[in-house]
């Protein structure tokens, strides 16, 4: 195909014919109105125009939408004869019926005659829209990551490469750990800024994380850090986590640090205080004891055995056997409560070997490990028969010690908060699965009701026998039983396995609605309902979940009908436009979506409940008014999201309800 003008030389025509199939977009403009002299196939593809609609016409007659953005540069090249280069230049193009913002790398090269006058412009262009979009997304992710680091209440930093260049750090890292100015640290090698680390274990750990790609964490690790103030000995809880590039190769380390120096120092002070307390306890004639709650081993002081009226070296069970029978239950309850509260306190009578009994007051504190499992009980005993005058001193010491130990327990509990939250989320997920299974089993009721109805019709002795009718009833019973078995099999499979990609198959929604209406045949007939529906699409989906979805929606449309008029249910579908997809929440804008709506003329509800009704066990009516579990619409939302879709409700009280289901045209399988 030759679109060169007759005035072109043979050499020029050969050049144009060669450029016609070039892999980049090439076009030539002539004159002040930029008449298009030729355009390569690639250029026509870039601008979304046909050859006959573009070549031989002024540029801005064919592409009026680009005039404001490119005309100044074309005029400058035509006037000055100086080429113009554009990189990632944004242009709004109307291609294939819609406006798109596209990005191009291009050059405007002047075409000159023998007199060096510029008479035209050669344009060489390539589209880089996908590259620009990818770079923007990468920049956004990096910005989000940096924002998370900078906003973190925990000291965080990022080292880059095997040289451990300090790329990023938040304010709390500078203020609390490094104690350095930002300009003296960022962009420099960590071991140059903190040379004291070379004689410690941290360079080796960083190298190990970079080479293996495996995180490393430690608790209460000793580190010597030189700040602007002084060299400081610190106790740190830290994690070195590798950062991977697109090839899953570690290129840096994200470091999270918690300064626990104060906590360790407090614990050491408490340990010293415990030693002092033991001396005070002994001098006050109080008996001390400790119990290992894991092994049940018990150690006691000499004074404790004097108070207990026995010899040293007994087991915990033997000590407990000295409790007066009337006080055994009091002791048992106190120990049981202490495992939860952390505090032991009770009074009981002790039977002495020499005869008689003494009232003893026992106080103690339970210590826990990092998982808050009780591991040790520290306690004291006081003979309150003879030592009443020690009561006030005992209370003061116990209170001080209890407060100190509780402070330690609170710090330990704080470090476990993240783990507790994860466990809570796991429990909630298990509850959600259990409730979904319960909801799915509810769908078995319709086929079961049909089986029972048609069996009653078969065994009704008063009616006239008809083989065709009987055969029809038996066929309906068989179909319902088959559907029940399918639902049960899929329910069992769902409760033991997560959804796999191969579970999605091509599903004709027309067949799904047909099967649903067969299940609801008796309800439709009894309510004299009218069902109208469009021709529905085929999609990639899980068949039984599609059945459950539309069974719930159509059942609700029939259930919440007005008593005075026959229900009318309309099932409509359309392909969403790009503007529609943007207007909906939680949709992937890279996919196309079908909208399938189920509308009714029922009782409706206030629009303010449009989100509320999708909550688990959320109902707008009492069970005595309308039956149901309150989880049907929750299940519908779960199914829609299983298929990368969404569901919304629109309603007007007294007018009717419209349920809108959005499903991808194709699923990423």
User: What is the number of E strands?
Assistant: 22
Strand arrangement, major sheet: 2-1-5-4-3
Most strands sheet: 5 strands, antiparallel
Enumerate the spans where pLDDT stays under 50 for 5 or more consecutive residues.
1-6, 388-392, 492-498
Computed Rg:
40 Å
Textual characterization of the structure:
The chain is an alpha+beta fold and 669 residues long. Residues 1-6, 388-392 and 492-498 have low confidence and may be disordered. The longest helix has 30 residues, at 467-496. The chain is 42% helix and 26% strand. The protein has 21 helices and 22 strands.
Which helices and strands appear, and what pairs or packs with what?
Elements: H1 10-20, E1 25-30, E2 35-39, H2 41-47, H3 59-62, H4 67-80, E3 84-95, E4 98-112, E5 118-127, H5 129-151, E6 156-160, E7 165-169, H6 171-178, H7 190-193, H8 202-212, E8 216-226, E9 231-244, E10 250-259, H9 261-283, E11 287-292, E12 298-300, H10 302-308, H11 316-320, H12 328-341, E13 343-351, E14 357-368, E15 374-383, H13 391-415, H14 417-442, H15 445-459, H16 467-496, E16 505-508, H17 509-519, H18 521-526, E17 530-533, E18 538-541, H19 543-559, E19 568-575, H20 578-583, E20 593-600, H21 632-642, E21 646-652, E22 656-664
Parallel strand pairs: 17-19
Antiparallel strand pairs: 1-2, 1-5, 3-4, 4-5, 6-7, 6-10, 8-9, 9-10, 11-12, 11-15, 13-14, 14-15, 16-18, 19-20, 20-22, 21-22
Helix pairs in contact: 9-13, 14-16, 15-16, 17-19, 19-21
């Amino acid at each position: 195909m030759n679109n060169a003008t007759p005035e072109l030389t043979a050499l020029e025509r050969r050049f144009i014919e060669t450029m016609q199939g070039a892999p980049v977009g090439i076009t030539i403009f002539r004159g002040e109105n930029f008449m298009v002299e030729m355009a390569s196939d690639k250029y026509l593809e870039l601008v979304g125009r046909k050859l006959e609609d573009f070549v031989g016409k002024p540029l801005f007659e064919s592409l009026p939408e680009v005039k404001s953005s490119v005309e100044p540069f074309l005029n400058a090249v035509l006037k000055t004869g100086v080429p113009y280069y554009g990189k990632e230049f944004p242009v709004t193009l109307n291609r294939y019926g819609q406006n798109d913002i596209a990005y191009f790398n291009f050059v405007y090269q002047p075409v000159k005659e023998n007199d060096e006058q510029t008479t035209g412009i050669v344009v060489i262009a390539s589209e880089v829209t996908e590259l620009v979009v990818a770079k923007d997304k990468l920049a956004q992710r990096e910005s989000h990551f940096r924002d998370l680091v900078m906003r973190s209440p925990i000291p965080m930093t990022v080292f880059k490469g095997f040289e451990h260049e300090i790329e990023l750090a938040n304010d709390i890292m500078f203020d609390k750990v490094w104690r350095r100015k930002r300009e003296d640290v960022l962009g420099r090698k960590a071991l140059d800024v903190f040379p004291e680390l070379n004689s410690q274990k941290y360079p080796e750990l960083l190298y190990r994380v970079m080479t293996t790609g495996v995180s490393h964490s430690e608790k209460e690790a000793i580190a010597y850090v030189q700040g602007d103030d002084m060299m400081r000995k610190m106790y740190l809880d830290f994690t070195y986590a590798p950062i991977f590039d697109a090839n899953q190769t570690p290129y840096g380390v994200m470091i999270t640090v918690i300064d626990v120096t104060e906590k360790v120092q407090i614990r050491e002070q408490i340990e010293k205080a415990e030693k002092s307390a033991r001396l005070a306890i002994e001098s006050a004639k109080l008996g001390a004891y400790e119990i290992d709650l894991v092994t049940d081993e018990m150690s006691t002081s000499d004074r404790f055995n004097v108070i207990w009226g026995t010899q040293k070296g007994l087991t915990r069970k033997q000590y407990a056997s000295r409790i007066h029978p009337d006080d055994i239950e009091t002791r048992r309850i106190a120990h049981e409560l202490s495992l939860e509260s952390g505090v032991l306190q009770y009074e009981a009578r002790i039977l002495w070997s020499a005869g008689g009994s003494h009232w003893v007051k026992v106080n103690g504190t339970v210590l826990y490990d990092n998982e808050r499992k009780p591991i040790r009980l520290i306690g004291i005993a006081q003979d309150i028969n003879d030592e009443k005058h020690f009561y006030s001193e005992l209370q003061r010491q116990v209170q001080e010690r209890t407060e100190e130990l509780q402070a330690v327990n609170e710090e330990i509990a704080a470090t476990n908060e993240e783990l507790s939250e994860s466990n809570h989320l796991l429990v909630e997920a298990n509850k959600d699965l259990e409730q979904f299974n319960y909801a799915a089993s509810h769908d078995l009721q319709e086929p079961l009701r049909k089986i029972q109805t048609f069996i009653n019709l078969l065994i009704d002795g008063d009616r006239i026998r008809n083989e065709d009718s009987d055969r029809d009833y038996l066929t309906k019973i068989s179909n319902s039983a088959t559907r029940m078995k399918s639902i049960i099999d899929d329910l069992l499979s769902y409760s033991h396995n997560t959804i796999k990609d191969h579970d999605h198959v091509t599903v004709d929604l027309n067949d799904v609605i047909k099967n649903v209406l067969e299940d609801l045949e008796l309800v439709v007939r009894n309510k004299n309902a009218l069902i109208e529906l469009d021709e529905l699409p085929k999609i990639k989906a899980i068949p039984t979940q599609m059945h459950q979805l539309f069974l719930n929606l159509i059942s609700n449309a029939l259930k919440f009908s007005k008593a005075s008029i026959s229900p009318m249910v309309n099932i409509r579908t359309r392909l969403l436009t790009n503007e529609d997809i943007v207007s909906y929440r939680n949709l992937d804008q890279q996919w196309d979506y079908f909208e399938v709506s189920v509308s009714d003329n029922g009782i409706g509800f206030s629009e303010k409940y449009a989100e509320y009704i999708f909550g688990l066990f959320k109902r707008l009516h009492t069970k005595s008014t309308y039956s149901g579990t309150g989880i049907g619409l929750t299940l519908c939302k779960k199914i829609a999201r299983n298929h990368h879709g969404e569901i919304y409700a629109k309603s007007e009280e007294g007018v009717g309800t419209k349920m809108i289901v959005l499903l991808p045209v194709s699923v990423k399988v």
